Amino acid sequence: MQEPLLGAEAPDYDTFPEKPPPSPGERTRVGATQNKRVFLATFAAVLGNFSFGYGLVYTSPVIPALEHSLDPDLSLTKTQASWFGSVFTLGAAAGGLSAMVLNDLLGRKLSIMFSAVPSAAGYALMAGARGLWMLLLGRTLTGFAGGLTAACIPVYVSEIATPGVRGALGATPQLMAVFGSLSLYALGLLLPWRWLAVAGEGPVLVMILLLSFMPNSPRFLLSRGRDSEAMRALAWLRGADTDIRWEFEQIQDNVRRQSSRMSWAEARDPHMYRPILIALLMRFLQQLTGITPILVYLQSIFDSTAVLLPPKDDAAIVGAVRLLSVLIAALTMDLAGRKILLFVSGYAMGWGPITWLLMSEILPLRARGVASGLCVLVSWLTAFALTKSFLLVVNAFGLQVPFFFFAAICLVNLLFTGCCVPETKGRSLEQIESFFRTGRRSFLR
């Protein structure tokens, strides 16, 4: 049976029958114009992901430096190093928890901007650290900011993007996070660890400056009854020469049907809990692949192996390969589709960028703010458990044991992708939600 999301739209799936969508010719004429400002708004937002990726791997060059530090207040033992590496993920879990409230209270844009406060404070603490507590608190604060942006930015990007570019733009959070990590690895070859923290302040300040000129999500504004502001935001995003009436009515209709918050009784409805459960399992399984502890301890991992190049150079090479892979994913996922890349590619081309994109696409509007925060919470609690135990397991059993476990999880991910993950290429968020509402099992095959 042909998948509904890949085949022609049947009458049962006609989400908005009152008025036909723009013709392909009309979409072609306005496509280039209506995406320019979307690209700018997306770039402003994903600078938060750059800071997140930078902060996540900050410990990779810093832990080896502090383990050999002559300052007794900053010299790290193996146990202290495991806390320094893993406490970031605890902060990220707290950030995801706060996003469950802030995403719908402040809106996507203001929540992203708010993340700059703990991020800047965290980098300042690490730059001026005089003891372990300052390092740990700085890592926690930057982790909190990262968890908040990880929940808010994919939702913001998916809600402002047009269906034709949502796949490519949906990969930009992961792309910028990887670019942030590569920047840290590269700067780690040149700067001492304190100056690495100082350099982390720059993207945060640029993000605040640019986002102050960007609009909020039209969907969020409509959900708060700010219709005229939503119209202006959509008009700005699509360009002055674009007829936005059909798209605005489409979004408005969906928001009106979901104007109230989801109740616990409604959460038991399959069209509500099924996409939330899929998103939660994707985030859980993504972390179980081991990506976070590998990135956090990357230089230490290379230190324990017989590689030819210096560990700092190896870490930078890994960062460059990840960046290239995510860039390829961004350019191909709207052509090949999300699901096929999950099957045939590695982490950086598949389970890295695509799971974040799918999370923002399939979550129902009424639960999107809370559910995205819950996904981030689950993701980073899992990451904490893995990151905290990784060095201890390696010291006790060797490097091969955790990597065998990660390989087994990758096989499980293939099965999960085949039976549960939907293909969403080329569909609007409202259409995706209507597919789940039909309850047709073929959509999830």
TrEMBL record:
One of its GO terms (cellular component) is plasma membrane. The keyword Nucleotide-binding does not apply. It holds the Pfam family Sugar_tr. Residues 1-29 are annotated as: Disordered. The keyword Cell inner membrane does not apply. It comes from Equus caballus (Horse). Residues 41-425 form the Major facilitator superfamily (MFS) profile domain. This is Solute carrier family 2 member 6. The chain crosses the membrane at residues 38-63, 83-103, 110-126, 132-156, 168-187, 193-214, 276-295, 340-359, 365-386, 393-416. It is a multi-pass membrane protein. It is found in: Cell membrane. It comes from the Eukaryota. SUPFAM superfamilies: MFS general substrate transporter. Keywords: Cell membrane, Membrane, Sugar transport, Transmembrane, Transmembrane helix, Transport. GO terms for molecular function: transmembrane transporter activity. Belongs to the major facilitator superfamily. Sugar transporter (TC 2.A.1.1) family. Glucose transporter subfamily.
